[in-house]
Write a structure and sequence with these properties.
The chain is mainly β. It contains eight helices and 110 strands. Residues 599-627, 1275-1293, 1308-1318, 1328-1356 and 1440-1447 have low confidence and may be disordered.
């Protein structure tokens, strides 16, 4: 049977050979435990020389390139490369992540450094600006950020003797930074005449503002302040790559292979030349040094680590070796011993002992090596070279046996036959040559079937056949040794293969993802005995599959560590280990194979944490074909919340219609109507795709949501209050632990979360900026300070907020599949769980990131889809409800047992003080004890259980339960059918709220003389609603099909309903029983209307472009209106019942005579004179003004006129309900608009007496009632609309000055060629060489702030060596306001002009200047607080458009 599940055994990283010396510096340190920390590929390594043991940090998913050690020497920070690189701070004892810093850098993180007390971390990016960032790393919070330099920065360090000062150096520069507030300000080092301007590679800070730096030419430059004061020439013979400061002094290492030690004053102590030692070699280059006590660590360019004991400095000890730069492709394992052989483009072949974890032999060849093979007896080692030759060595002493060159292109693969007689050599010339081993490697055959380069080969066990793969993905077979191609299928059937390393073939179909390049899997090796195989691919991943693996897209276990291409992978001879090698990271990884039986003992070892961003979700869901998803869940996962247009896009869309606006603005338009509407009651509850979104508030009211409205419902008075801050569907709701605040999350391009007060209905905080498309889950922490949210973007991003400050604390990509619930641990607010499709994850906060661990299922089954979760009575315990009706009980991350709770999915769970309550698709509410041992009581939601006084009707028994909440002695239940019920503990059920179920609601009709309306929806129900204060559903009937329209007869006794299959019914309006039904059409019936008066005729419009007219009395079709070119959208009768007005989807306005249906042409002036029985049309000159400026993008779907013909209400695709004066002539009429529906408002109707407007909202399933308020009846308005799409230009406009200022554009300058290029250093900031007569003055006065220069007129004149600003004429008044202030009790005046802040002394008439800005100052304010006297803030315009630079400065402290 083709098992697609992942194998149950696994691999554990045991050893990594190598050290990253190339392109990195200063990346090797002693920790406090005297272990050595460094990195290679994507792995942080902590090596204990005493125990010869390695620990690994695996939190990165790409090459690590920088490392810094915390001053306490336990924590390590590492930075990686990649598109969205991040920094991890981790513990070198436990190798677990402490904090993740992300979302700021791009490309990579080049350097890192901790400050003296270890609270802050500075990082430098690899982006074009080499951005410098300072972090509060524990919180994961960015404190400051500034562009570093235009060229690469190589090193950065905090000045350990002065707070808030940093130094960075790099290509031809050194910069001295000061951190003030959140701004980093650099000053460039002045090389002057003391030394040449050149590239500085490393630096170290000393006391008294002295900085030592290592230069590219081998000199050491010594800086005092920002000036170069002396150089130590020839410290090294070539570039100094590394400098390390310790208590005893400084150590430097350079390209010349020397390490030098210096004392604290940088006097030389000693020099160690590594090239002269036993292990040394020509060209050795030092990249990293670390000096601690009497030990020195040295890392070299060629991936070696030396440890030197100072008093035996000529005997360095080699503790790590690896391949040098150049790709690593060749790998072979010894057939009988635990040895691995590797060969690389660095021309060396190396033999590693897998038991001693050490290099035991190396030999340098003439050419780069591309592949290797060991003969079956283990005597010969064959190496394929890049130039097309191959060499055979004796393994024993690495002496050459033969060297043969028959090909011009690289040899990519070679293999000895199992009987040891032949060697097959595959080259990039698309051919395989066969050589006889015994005949001193004489060529005996050739295979030439391939059209592309040979990639993989395997021999059959009897050495008679060879299979090959080539670059085209072709698999070919040859008879050996001659090389004749075999095409006969029969002959191939029985072949047993001695090894399997090919990537194509039936047995390895499953290793290919369903959509994949043919070349991205580089290597495969099968372990026939263990029935597993291992693969290596271009994404740095080693995967473990079952073998054989027949079906595409099989599941696997995956292991990260290599950074880019894993070029080769092999099992050791006894299958104890897997060896993998990395191409560009040229490292060798040794993995321990842990078979199934051993797994049982290791179950309680927690899984290695991974940062989920390493998209490790792809397949670890170790099951194969998961059972069918429950239909309801499947339906829910397929809902897409993407909109073509979001309300946020309105301003841009209007901007695009500028021309139209201009033409409209010139015309005089009608004012908006004086009357208004106010939301009064909403029928509906969003249950079909939301869960746990229903709660009791502190005062016993009920809070829930539907459409874009947060509803607070008072069940005693049957009234509702509304939170109307959202403008699109709300998808989730959570209540604060004190039950007074609520958080709701909505759909949107940049979707927002609102936290609001249920008493005052006022927003407390709005969180935006991190979730795309929508927010599907929110949860408060137990202390109420934090909020977690989950987005519906492709990665289902999880964000943790400090909601009061509006600050994002941490974020992480959650899962590829939908996440349903997030819950914060009530005991530890840094921990949370998420559940979703095949997903149960436990997260803990680490700085700006979250670290996730999958729930560990062990032998108890497979990861189900989880629908709900809660925490239990201790911090370790968690409970989740599955899609199969079980409750899973978790301790820490381990599943300890499952309990069957419901038939079908468990959708909702709620934790009580002593026990739990669950609700499921089976319509049962169950109460459990606190261990889920016993079910104490169940309540089935049935019609029979409804309390006698309950209003409304239950649509069906046992509706699917989506939300449960407890309080006030009741259980509150929300169902998928849009009902909210209250279950008394003793059993009776009261129905509180009802609405339509999933499906769009289009049909709406109001009764001709009662406060009643009817709706019909795609959910296949027809419902009658009471609009009087009892607000309940009076009747409901299930239909065989969904419907899109309905209409009461003029006497209100009959109700006509048009269905989606082209039929329509007429039913009794009280009992909803059929009176008559017809079907003449195939397409949806889109509108249905009784003629006025006696209701003699019924007009039925359908989507196949016809209107049929029926005689109601005789039940016959009497006319057909033809001539529409598109589907019919709206219909109205005239008062006499003789004329029909019809609108179509092609925006035609047509007229037909009734009852025959003859088409008439009526000029628009005449149309206005006709008395219409109703007006629901959206076309024609009377309602031209209802179409918005962006009418191409959005449709007006419905309209309805009041009976006094004064106000026209409309509904549109944006979810707006608008009121216009009627007739709305002229384009773009003014209106009042109201938001409560989310997307399409599908229908609007006034009640018979115009007291209420009733609207239905398409997909949001809600029915909303709005009270109509006459002009002058203005009480506190929750939302009065923006009055119109156009601003009030034509309403008298602006004063001319205001208009002019409004039109000033401050960005032109930056976009066009610059008037005055802004670069260089202002004269007063340039470094002056101090002359002798300029000794610092001695004074008792406070030192003046350095930035403020006072000009005292009476000074003795010195020769001018610099221009000093003396007087400025001018003041910026043309476009600024409130920018002149008194300071110092009126002694001084502060104002600004150009880029200068001016302090003017009234008494002396002298001016002092603040000159730090580099462009026009546009605003100024003075801090009024007594604590901050004389603090001024000024803001300037800048090159980067709309970046405001605020600078605070002190004034007048003379």
């Amino acid at each position: 049977m083709a098992d697609r599940s992942a194998p149950s055994c696994h691999l554990r990283l045991e050893w990594v050979y190598g050290y990253r010396g190339h392109q990195c510096r200063n990346n090797l340190y002693y920790t406090a435990a005297k272990e050595i920390v460094y990195f290679v590929a994507g792995v942080g390594v902590v090596y204990s020389p005493r125990e010869h043991r390695q620990k690994f940090y695996l939190g990165h998913q790409d090459d690590i390139i920088s490392l810094a050690l915390h001053p306490e020497r336990v924590l390590v920070a590492t930075g990686q490369v990649g598109k969205e690189p991040y920094i991890c701070v981790w513990d070198s004892y436990t190798v677990q992540t402490v904090s993740v810093l992300k979302d700021v850098h791009t490309h990579g993180i080049a350097c890192l450094a901790f400050d003296l007390d270890g609270q802050r971390l500075v990082s430098v990016g690899l982006d074009s600006k080499n951005t410098v960032c300072v972090w509060d790393w524990r919180k994961g919070k960015l404190l400051s950020m500034a562009p570093g330099h235009t060229d690469r920065i190589f090193d950065i360090s905090w000045d350990l003797y002065q707070p808030n000062k940093l130094v960075s150096c790099g290509v031809k520069h050194i910069k001295f930074w000061s951190l003030c507030g959140n701004s980093l300000t650099p000053k460039r080092g002045v090389f002057g005449k003391t030394g040449d301007l050149q590239t500085i590679l490393c630096l170290a800070c000393a006391r008294d503002e002295v900085t030592y730096s290592g230069a590219l030419n081998g000199d050491i430059y010594v800086w005092k302040g920002i000036n170069l004061v002396r150089t130590i020439q020839g410290a090294h013979a070539a570039g100094i790559f590394s400098m390390n400061a310790c208590e005893e002094g400084f150590a430097t290492g350079g390209r010349d292979g020397c390490v030098r030690l210096w004392d604290l004053n940088f006097k030389p102590i000693t020099v160690i030349d590594l090239r002269e030692t036993d292990q040394g070699y020509k060209g050795l280059s030092v990249r990293s040094v670390c000096w601690r006590g009497d030990h020195i660590l040295v890392g070299t360019q060629d991936s070696e680590i030396f440890e030197i004991v100072v008093h035996e400095r000529n005997k360095p000890f080699l503790i790590m070796q690896g391949h040098c730069e150049g790709e690593l492709w060749a790998l072979a394992v010894h057939p009988t011993k635990p040895l691995a052989m590797t060969g690389s483009d660095d021309r060396s072949v190396r033999i590693w002992s897998l038991i001693d974890h050490a290099l035991i032999a190396r030999c340098n060849m003439e050419e780069p090596i591309r592949c290797a093979a060991v003969s079956t007896d283990g005597i010969h080692l064959a190496l394929g070279m890049k130039d097309g030759s191959f060499t055979v060595l004796r393994v024993r002493d690495m002496t050459e046996v033969v060297h043969i060159k028959d090909r011009k292109e690289a040899i990519h693969e070679l293999k000895y036959s199992p009987d040891g007689n032949f060697l097959a050599v595959g080259s990039n010339d698309s051919s395989v040559d066969i050589y006889g081993v015994v005949q001193r490697y004489k060529k005996v055959g050739e295979c030439i079937g391939s059209l592309s380069f040979i990639t993989h080969m395997d021999w059959s066990s009897d050495s008679k056949y060879l299979q090959t793969n080539d670059g085209n993905g072709k698999r070919l077979f040859y008879r050996m040794p001659g090389g004749k191609e075999v095409t006969n299928k029969e002959e191939l059937k029985g072949i047993q293969w001695a090894s399997w390393t090919c990537v194509s073939g039936l047995e390895v179909n499953g290793i290919w993802p369903k959509y994949s390049e043919i070349n991205d899997i580089n290597s495969v090796d099968a372990n026939f005995i263990g029935q597993v195989m291992v693969t290596a691919d271009d994404y740095g991943i080693v995967k473990l599959f079952r073998y054989p693996c027949l079906r595409k897209g099989a599941k696997f276990k995956k292991y990260l560590g290599h950074s880019a291409h894993v070029t080769n992978v092999r099992w050791s001879h006894d299958h104890q280990w897997v060896v993998s090698i990395g191409g560009a990271d040229h490292s060798v990884f040794q993995w321990k194979f842990v078979p199934d039986r051993k797994l049982k003992d290791t179950l309680h070892i927690a899984p290695q944490e991974s940062l989920v961003d390493s998209n490790s979700d792809e397949s670890d869901s170790d099951q194969s074909d998961v059972p069918e998803l429950d239909s309801e869940i499947e339906q829910e996962t397929q809902i897409t919340y993407r909109r073509q247009v979001y309300k946020e896009d309105l301003p841009q869309l209007k901007e695009q219609c500028k021309e139209k606006r201009k033409s409209a603005a010139s015309k005089r338009r009608e004012r908006a109507p004086g009357n208004s509407i106010r939301l009064h009651f909403v029928h509906g509850y969003r249950g079909y795709d939301c869960r746990s979104n229903l709660f009791y508030t502190q005062t016993g009211e009920i809070v829930y949501h539907v459409a874009a409205v947060g509803v607070v419902y008072n069940r005693q008075q049957n009234t509702q209050r509304f939170y109307l801050g959202h403008d699109d569907d709300i998808l989730c709701l959570a209540i604060h632990p004190l039950k007074d605040y609520v958080a709701t999350g909505q759909v949107g391009r940049d979707s927002s979360i609102h936290i609001w007060d249920t008493e005052t209905i006022k927003p407390l905080s709005v969180l935006k900026g991190y979730h795309q498309y929508g927010v599907c889950a929110v949860d408060f922490s137990a202390d109420g300070k934090r909020l977690a949210s989950v987005g519906i973007d492709d990665n289902h991003t999880i964000v943790l907020w400090d909601w009061k400050k509006g600050e994002k604390l941490s974020a992480v990509r959650g899962s590829k599949d939908k996440i349903f619930v997030v819950k914060i641990n009530p005991y530890m607010p840094d921990k949370l769980i998420t559940v979703g499709i095949k997903h149960m994850k436990f997260w803990r906060r680490a700085g700006g990131g979250l670290i996730g661990r999958k729930g560990c299922i062990g032998a108890l089954g497979r990861t189900d889809t989880m629908m709900c979760a809660v925490y239990g009575w201790t911090e370790e315990m968690a409970f989740s409800g599955t899609s199969t009706g079980d409750v899973c009980i978790w301790r820490d991350v381990f599943l300890i047992k499952t309990v069957k709770a419901h038939d079908g999915p468990v959708f909702s769970m709620h934790a009580l003080e002593k026990g739990f309550v669950t609700g499921g698709k089976d319509g049962v509410v169950a109460l459990w004890d606190d261990t889920f041992e016993r079910c104490l009581k169940t309540y089935a939601i049935k019609r029979a259980a409804l309390a006698p006084g309950s209003k409304g009707l239950l649509l069906e028994d046992n509706p699917s339960i989506r939300a449960i909440s407890l309080g006030h002695g009741h259980i509150l239940v929300g169902t998928k059918n849009g009902e909210i019920l209250e279950v008394d503990k003793s059993g009776p059920i009261t129905l509180l709220v009802q609405g339509h179920m999933e499906g769009e609601v289009w049909g709406l009709a109001t009764h001709p003389h009662l406060p009643i309306c009817a709706t019909v929806s795609d959910d296949k129900t027809l419902r009658i609603w009471d609009l009087s204060p009892s607000h309940c559903m009076l009747a409901v009937r299930k239909l065989k099909k969904g419907g899109r329209c309905c209409c009461f007869s003029p006497d209100g006794k009959a109700l006509a309903v048009g269905l989606n299959d082209g039929s329509f019914l007429i039913v009794n309006a009280d009992t909803l029983e059929d009176l008559v039904s017809f079907q003449h059409r195939k397409d949806v019936i889109s509108e249905i209307r009784f003629s006025p008066g006696a209701g003699k005729y019924l007009a039925v419009a359908s989507c196949d472009n016809f209107v049929d007219i029926y005689n109601v009395m005789s039940s016959k079709r009497v006319g057909i209106c033809k001539g529409a070119s598109s589907y019919i959208t709206h219909m109205d009768w005239d008062i006499r019942g003789k004329l029909l007005q019809v609108n179509t989807g092609a925006k035609e306005q047509l007229f037909f005579e009734a009852p025959r249906g003859k088409k008439q042409t009526i000029p628009s002036l005449e149309v206005e004179k006709i008395g219409w029985a109703s007006w629901t049309s959206v076309l024609g000159s009377c309602c031209e003004g209802i179409w918005p400026i962006i009418g191409e993008v959005t449709d007006v779907t419905a309209s309805c006129l009041t009976s006094d013909s004064k106000v026209l209400a409309t509904g549109d695709d944006f979810g707006f309900v608008k009121l216009f004066r009627y007739p709305a002539k002229g384009k773009f009429g003014k209106f009042k608009r109201y938001v409560a529906h989310s997307t399409h408002v599908t229908n609007v109707r006034w009640t018979y007496d115009d007291s209420l407007l009733v609207t239905v909202g398409g997909a949001d399933t809600s029915l909303m009632l709005w009270t109509y308020e006459m002009e002058g009846h203005r009480d506190s308005r929750q939302c009065d609309s923006e009055e119109s799409d156009l601003d009030s230009e034509e309403d008298g406009g602006y004063d001319s000055d205001v208009t002019r200022e409004n039109e000033i554009n401050y960005t032109i300058k930056a976009l066009s060629t610059n008037i005055r290029p802004m670069f260089g250093i202002k004269p007063h900031l340039q470094q002056k060489e101090p002359t002798l007569d300029e000794r610092p003055p001695v004074s008792r006065a406070l030192p003046q702030p350095e930035k403020l220069q006072t000009n005292n007129v009476g000074k003795k004149k010195r020769p001018i060596e610099d221009l000093i600003l003396e007087l400025v004429f001018g003041y910026r008044g043309k476009d600024c306001r409130n920018n002149v202030h008194y300071l110092n009790d009126g002694a001084d005046v502060i104002y600004h002009t150009a880029s200068i802040g001016i302090l003017y002394n009234v008494a002396t008439g002298s001016q002092s200047f603040y000159q730090e800005h580099n462009d026009d100052i546009l605003c100024l304010t003075v801090n009024q607080h007594p604590k901050f006297t004389n603090i001024v803030a000024t803001g300037q315009e800048t090159q980067q458009i709309c970046q405001l630079q605020l600078l605070l400065f002190m004034c007048g402290m003379q």
